[in-house]
Write a structure and sequence with these properties.
alpha+beta, Fructose-1,6-Bisphosphatase, Chain A, domain 1, 3-stranded antiparallel β-sheet
């Protein structure tokens, strides 16, 4: 499970990016690494998106063997990049190839508004790994006509016809993931996890018939396959060598085998070996064996996330999106934050959960601050800022989990500049001062508590199935909200000061509460078009958490809705009572998960997390017009460049930066396109 980067934007501030013109090129000219003081974190901004760079501090402190490990793992990740594109939508690869051919080869007039609109559309498609918005799931609408696109195709001898062409402009496949209530979510989602004639009922009946060899250790059925219906019969197309996405998976395996050869220790090498076996066979028992081994392999400077993991893109929460993050341990920061994982049992014992929902023995929770060296798939360009894995509840309970905070990603956000948006939406000078002094620390601690304590806490009642089965399309938002609530509950606790993590626990907690409520009830609405419902899982959870405590605290005026000079603000009058309300909601969300109470989660999410106050939404959008900074951000990746001797052996690996976003995207397409257009 991952904490998306968008959270840090709204809790700290929203940043300003400098725009710069892109000259079309297929080259890979790169800038060299600079010191942080000299480094320009900003790349460009377009539409509702901005592109940043990040550095890899400490790279030169790694041994050559460790650098090779990072390089091989990064190449393995990029080798599977196109899998994510095809998973997102069945025509994505075909559309991307056509648009890129135009971008590279068109030599006509590039000063027109139509051409500029074409460039922006392609960049948006690159950013989202497809034609649907990475966050809202809505199909991206081009600001040019089909006639103009046909002119570009004719001028560049580009071919794209039929449904793949028409879908760019029509209303078909309008939502990548549609989690609306009372519809067939599978049939009305464009994501390419299911055949066009597969329904919710098909998915539920197909997996209800599957039984794990060990009911206490259920396999992750559906995680690595596409479910299709042929001649009325449902069957899985498994992602593996020789199976679906096999040509890309073989490239992934090639680089993983190189990585295994330079593993830092036996445990790490054995885990990589199991991952290779899983890719070759598609066997879900091997996937569990790998996750157990990977979770236990905690020594070394280098670690990674690689495979089909998060299920947010599946409307029913079965299938994993391809994702990779390669990471280097930040030993100094990890040691400072290790105190959280060392005290995981204290947090569990002192939580407001019902006793039967608490774990008697929280095992194996490791927390590290890491430096990202490369990302691909569902983690790029839009990246999480924190991750806790594995996702299987039984592995968390028996073996433990790994939690990481992506330190250099957060640092890039913090160094990219800021705007006055924070001042526009805070209630008063006291709230502004708290945010400016304690907001970044509060955010880092919330990420840590969310990942380390939140996702690791609680347990299912005996006999209750996995949350994807019991809570269905609400499973992801319930879990993310539950983890958020764990973090919120403990952010306002003197234990943090006792552990030496803060100097003033109350002010850190107040800043955290201010930021969360401000975001959940107001500022995150800048990402929605007026009239839209909230659909993304994390965004829903922030709204239902905030709206629930606002309503339940109304009698005591815990959170006050203030109107001043025609503007709305939310002011927290009683932080102590808000802390209690967060605890009550945490207790209830854990009960819902532990008992598999579908009716309760539906009432919670639909009642508080989906519908938007249209008056406040219109006001927020109007107040936000004064700011030029886009609400979403993502990253280009540093480029690892190996230097070879005459025998072809790597003698050094240097870090450089891509010139720009289009240059990196075109280079990726040229170097890592291992899938056919139709799979």
């Amino acid at each position: 499970m991952k904490l998306k980067s968008i959270i840090i934007i709204c809790l700290i501030a929203v940043f300003t990016w400098s725009c710069k013109d892109d000259n079309k090129t297929t080259g890979t000219d790169e800038t060299t690494e600079k010191t942080e003081a000299e480094f320009d974190f900003n790349v460009e901004q377009f539409a509702d998106l901005k592109i940043l760079r990040y550095q890899i501090p400490g790279w030169d402190n790694l041994t050559l063997k460790e650098q090779k490990l990072v390089y091989y793992l990064t190449e393995a990740g990029l080798a599977g990049r196109d899998i994510m594109w095809d998973q997102n939508y069945r025509h994505n690869l075909k559309i991307r190839k056509a648009l890129e051919n135009v971008y590279v080869n068109f030599d006509g007039d590039k000063s027109t508004e139509d051409w500029k609109a074409f460039e922006v559309y392609l960049k948006r498609v690159w950013f989202s790994n497809g034609i649907h918005h990475h966050y809202s799931n809505d199909k991206i609408k081009p600001d040019f006509s089909k006639e103009y696109l046909n002119e570009l195709f004719k001028a560049t001898s580009t071919k794209l016809d039929g449904e793949a062409f028409d879908v760019i402009f029509n209303d078909k496949d309008a939502k990548k993931v549609n989690q609306a209530k009372g519809i067939d979510n599978v049939a009305l989602s464009a994501v390419n996890f299911y055949g066009s004639n597969v329904t919710n009922a098909d998915v539920e009946s197909f997996y209800a018939a599957k039984k794990s060899p060990d009911p206490d250790r259920p396999l992750s059925f559906g995680l690595n396959s596409q479910l299709v219906k042929e001649d009325g019969v449902l069957k899985e197309r498994v992602y593996k060598s020789g199976g679906l996405y096999g040509s890309a998976i073989d490239e992934i395996v090639k680089w993983l085998e190189k990585a295994q050869g330079v593993a830092e220790n036996k445990a790490q090498g054995d885990a990589i070996g199991l991952l290779i076996e899983y890719y070759k066979t598609g066997d879900l028992q091997t996937w569990d064996d790998y996750n157990v081994a990977w979770t236990a392999a905690t020594d070394g400077n280098v670690d990674y996330i690689n495979s089909f993991i998060e299920v947010y893109n599946d409307p029913l929460g079965y299938r994993g999106s391809y994702e990779t993050i390669v990471q280097i341990n930040d030993f100094d920061m990890s040691q400072k934050m290790k105190v959280l994982s060392d005290n995981a049992q204290w947090f569990e014992d002192n939580s407001p959960l019902m006793d039967e929902h608490k774990k008697d023995n929280v095992v194996g929770v490791t927390y590290k601050v890491v430096t990202v060296a490369g990302e691909a798939g569902d983690a790029s360009p839009s990246t999480p800022i924190g991750v806790n894995l594995p996702n299987a509840n039984w592995i968390r309970k028996e073996v433990g989990s790994k939690s990481v905070s992506l330190g250099n990603i957060i640092n890039a956000y913090n160094n990219a500049g800021s705007t006055g948006r924070l001042k526009e939406f805070v209630h008063d000078e006291e709230e502004l001062a708290l945010e400016e002094e304690y907001g970044q620390l509060a955010d880092k601690l919330h990420t840590a508590l969310h990942e380390v304590i939140g996702h690791a806490s609680g347990q299912l009642n005996p006999g209750v199935g996995e949350t994807k089965e019991t809570l269905k399309n609400y499973a992801s938002t319930l879990e993310e909200g539950r983890a958020d609530l764990v973090g919120l509950y403990y952010l306002y606790d003197s234990k943090l000061q006792e552990l030496g993590l803060v100097e003033d626990w109350k002010k850190v907690g107040m800043a955290a509460y201010d930021g969360y409520i401000r975001n959940g009830l107001m500022t995150q609405l800048i990402r929605l078009n007026l009239g839209d419902d909230v659909e993304e899982a994390h965004m829903r959870n922030r709204q239902w958490v905030s709206a629930w405590v606002f309503e339940k605290g109304a009698k005591d005026n815990v959170i006050e809705k203030v109107t001043r000079d025609g503007k709305t603000y939310f002011n927290i009058n009683d932080y102590d009572k808000l802390h209690e309300l967060f605890g009550q909601l945490l207790r209830e969300t854990q009960r819902i998960k532990s008992e598999g109470d579908y009716a309760a989660v539906e009432a919670l999410v639909e009642g508080y997390g989906v519908k938007v106050d249209q008056e406040i939404h219109a006001e927020v959008l109007e107040r936000n017009k004064q700011f030029t900074s886009a609400p979403y951000s993502g990253f280009v990746n540093p480029v690892l460049v190996p230097e070879m001797d005459d025998n072809g052996e790597i003698t050094a690996i240097k870090v450089s930066q891509p010139v720009g976003f289009p240059e990196q995207m075109l280079n990726y397409s040229k170097k890592y396109s291992f899938l056919p257009e139709v799979n």
